[in-house]
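Lab meeting, item 3. Inverse folding demo.
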């Protein structure tokens, strides 16, 4: 089967945080600066959205609670209720935590749930109109029954996260590092240790920078390349690129597997004018089929007991 790349939604400004919900067979994502959350149903082509009161960085289903989601809202982890309707009202159920209180200009960025239902999400400093970011202003947090814990500091732009249960590994991207980090991962506690690097994008002369990522069932990483017009398939054990999927947009922001067989790669993109206008289809969501691989189910967030 040949690889097919198809645009499936209209453009947004900063598409991010794709999350596939198996129960509803829908893709949820956000547009950060437009303060919107989105739902796309591939079987019907229906794309709905609604607006929140702040910049929203991710949206993830909550375990055992229909229409409930955990979102990153500015610097807050918040539980919301949304029925998925176009323009329908969002109910704020509960605020779980506020982070980076000492740096109020920061905001949350990429967030994802680990195999045990814990939320991992990081922050970043402000971006200048030229596209440059404040250095080392962000952190990476874990939110679970033990509370909200800072597990990494001096982060530039917190981005892609992925776990490999077989390798007992946690992979993580700070975009301005231009590298993929690997940590030893304790599945029982969610603790990470022993940082190393498994791929260096600058050293390998990759155009653009790493953004969001996901992992397939063979343990290979799929990495969105911002300003690279592509998604790269990386083998983290050997530190090599295995494949490249070209996307007709420059600013590729994140990826996740979905579809009934978890063999469709959904790709979010942005249309930011950083000295250069990004015309449609930039900013759209793309659906990639025919890759011959499958992903893991996106895990729902397990609400902390306390």
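The presenter then showed the designed sequence:
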């Amino acid at each position: 089967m040949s690889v097919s790349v198809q645009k499936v939604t209209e453009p947004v400004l900063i598409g991010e945080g794709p999350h596939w919900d198996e129960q509803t067979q829908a893709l949820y994502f956000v547009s950060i600066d437009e303060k919107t959350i989105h739902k796309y149903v591939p079987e019907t082509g229906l794309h709905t959205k609604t607006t929140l009161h702040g910049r929203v960085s991710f949206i993830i289903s909550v375990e055992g609670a229909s229409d409930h989601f955990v979102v990153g809202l500015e610097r807050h982890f918040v539980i919301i209720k949304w029925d998925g309707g176009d323009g329908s009202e969002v109910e704020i159920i509960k605020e779980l935590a506020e982070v980076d209180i000492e740096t109020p200009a920061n905001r949350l960025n990429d967030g994802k749930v680990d195999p045990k239902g814990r939320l991992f999400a990081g922050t970043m400093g402000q971006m200048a109109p030229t596209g440059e970011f404040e250095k080392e202003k962000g952190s990476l947090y874990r939110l679970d029954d033990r509370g909200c814990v800072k597990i990494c500091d001096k982060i530039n732009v917190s981005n892609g996260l992925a776990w490999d249960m077989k390798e007992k590994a946690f992979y993580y991207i700070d975009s301005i590092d231009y590298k993929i980090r690997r940590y030893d991962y304790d599945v029982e506690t969610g603790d990470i240790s022993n940082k190393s690097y498994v791929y260096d994008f600058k050293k390998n002369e990759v155009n653009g920078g790493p953004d969001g990522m996901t992992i397939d069932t063979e343990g290979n990483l799929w990495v969105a390349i911002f300003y690279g017009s592509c998604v790269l398939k990386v083998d983290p054990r050997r530190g090599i690129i295995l494949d490249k999927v070209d996307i007709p947009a420059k600013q590729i922001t994140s990826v996740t597997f979905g579809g009934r067989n978890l063999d469709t790669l959904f790709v979010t993109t942005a249309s930011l004018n950083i000295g250069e206008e990004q015309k449609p289809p930039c900013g759209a969501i793309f659906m990639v089929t025919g890759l011959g691989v499958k992903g893991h189910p996106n895990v729902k967030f397990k609400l902390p007991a306390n």
